[in-house]
Amino acid sequence: MLTRHTMIEKIFLWLFIGMIGSITCSAHPLIKRIKTWNWQISNQGYLEQIVFKDRQGNDTILFFKGNKTKGPAFYINKGDKDIIAEWKGGKMKTFHAKIDDIVCHLRYEQWKGMPALFITLKNTGKQSFRPTKAGIKLGIDTYMDKYPNWLSKYFPTLMRNEKTHFFGYLQTPSRNTLGIVSTRPIASWSIDYNLGYQDPAPHWFMGHRIESLNIDLLNTLPLPDRHPQNLDELKPGQFKRWIIAFIPIEKPEFFEATVHQVANFPMIQMQQSTFCPNETATFDVFANKPQVDVCDDEGQPLNINIKAISKGIYRVKCKLPQVGLYKATVYDGRYRSEGILTAHASYQWTLEQARKATLKYHQKATSHAESWYGFYSAFLAAKYFPDKEIDKTLSKRFDYLYNKLYDSINVRPLYYQERIQNTSTTIGILIKKYHTEKQIKDILHASQLADWLINTSQRQKDGAYVSHQKVYTSVIYIAKSMLELSIAEQEIAEKNTFWQNAAKRHYNSAKRAIDQLVAQQGNLETEGEETFEDGMLSCSALQIGMLALMQKDERDRQHYTNAMLQLLQSHDCLTQLRVPDARRRGGTMRYWETQYDVQMLPNMICSPHGWSAWRAYATYYAYLLTGDEKWLLQTYNAMGAFINLIDYKTGELRWAFIVDPYIKARQTCNADPHYTVDSVSLGNPHPDLYKTRSFIIGEQYVNMVSDWQTVNTQDNDVHEIFKCICESMLTNAFVIEHPNEEYVGYNCKINKIGHNLYVEANEKQMINLHCNFKNSITVIFNGKTRQLPAHYLGWAFGENRYSSKE
Prior knowledge:
Helices cover 25% and strands 32% of the residues.
């Protein structure tokens, strides 16, 4: 089988940077761009801005001013709070600051032509210095609080510590990208998250914005194994030095090549992080003379093939023999870099384990739909892989909760009616239940709930679904649930005017709401604190994309496609698209969910999280609409991260993966004695209302809590990823023709013999085949044959809910 890497674009980037630098590319006719830069440094020693200039204009990186965390600023945390020192001095752009016996020297200087911070920490005391953290608050303005200002703000998209060095990047919604590097090891990094609101006083829930990005030069242990383990102490009289440089990145896809050429440490570039068992994994290494090891999670090395494909660029191939995680380590001189690949478990096994988890981690009647989200997995598994006993138990459980939460006579929610996303979620679950059990009452209840939602929440003026005077269309994709309902109703309509009218009514309602999203051109609203919010963007994009797929008129289709792509591309800064770690690839950067979902504080980046699936729907739709393989690859990589939320060794479901390397967390550790799992529980109980336990967490999975916590928790939102897997991958295989008539497959194996293309699906339930061809060819799939014309893009076999261009 030809691998899908055969024709992946090679990036040969050679960079010579002085105060004036140029970028050329031997593989592509890039326009040479001359970059100069300048910075503004205040008399107090803080950066106010860095401006990179080129032929196309200026790229300005703003730093905090006023009462925000100005930077760079020296700080120490001894366990309770951050202590920030003020700079003194200022001659020759050199400053110093002191906290107790620790002196920090800062010098602003060029490094390889780039703006850089030269930092020294020295212990002038007689006692060893062992802080919780000590480092630099960078002060880059990351505070996204209003449109359109947030379009130019830099989000800390990727920060990565290796044992020998550090790298990362920040990105704006407009995709301007700023690299950060250190050729010396840095202990860790951290983020200061804002506070949100008290409920109840004096207990604070965390907010949705970022106050500061910190480079933690020293950090106490434990830290992830990949981090340096010896930067937790500064002995009396000892000093350590670092250089932290800022590098403009021409395009995000040039990140690894640019960083290697400037900093000279090895960089791993994974176009694909997820593979099937026994498939050959391929990734590229930017290095000088690399040695590469790939080992399974027992430390057993794999056979690898490494080949230089250009000066300084090496391609590594290795077969991943079975389901699991595999660590790649690259040694190059004194440097080492790590990455993680995965061979994913089958979709069938994944969905079956998700169904089991729906029983173990109780589905509860609460004020939040996230508490009963597992019924998506329950009914989808029952449809594709029926298990009479467990399916009957879960169906009864749903009926029990439905009757607790909804007025079965008037068909409307009994509690928290303003949380209209609860109702749209229940509509979606009822549709899945109907598709499995074929009980007309389920689709009827869904239809009646949809009418109630329209009558109480949809504005006549612009069609938006609103709650508390805010647009809620993109709070758990209300319009998508409406479209799913209209499709289900249309399937049973035929000559029945009742269902014909219902399908039309609900489609038109959804279309009006989505048209309002398109008209806003990115100026969107959502639940909670206003910010450039992950779900607001991804849910808007996915709903616009779904509507685009349903359009027959090519102009309408293109209109919605363009609007979706604009939002999706701006969302790149909130997504882990370049991290060389299959556990995280495709996850979106949410950081205020632990407090609600698993009763844990403070904020921390949970990625992937259940809501990461929202972007995966959008990238899946983007591929169907455009045929651009990058969208399918992003979707596929995300599926690997999602599947690994189920432990492939034990089958246990985990709630999310935490990205932050070091968080002092506290979490509720006892069930609420006033409730049982059969009670109705309303509101978000603050973790500090209960007994808590404290611990350190970093770069690891977080377990579910709904198996023991009786009160409202929302960890069952993880089941959104299984719903997404079912829609995009469970029953679907994909074939793409690359240049020179080379074919690659996703979820399938392919074999081209003459003018015939034989396609074999990886799993038995994969009955749909999507083809993306440049030339005409005969395809044989599941015993059926079809001649496809040139320039074919669409479903060639099987059934799919959405039409696609052919």
